[in-house]
Amino acid sequence: MQDPTQPMRSEAASAGFYQAPWGKAYSRIQLLTVVDLLAGKTVDFPRENVTFKKAPKATIPETENEELPFG
Question: Is residue 68 a part of any domain in this protein?
Fold first, then answer.
């Protein structure tokens, strides 16, 4: 319910910025008060999912597709 203290602001500033591929910088730690949230302020972050890499699609080698000999 209170404004962030100077040590809180220093800690947030020391975390630095995330540099998006399109050039915009986003604060890694953002301080929002209840008043800010009620006023409609939100966390500033990239709206596109560029922070995580997608894993390559798994392929099954042909040798694993062979039937097992029963009999």
Answer: no
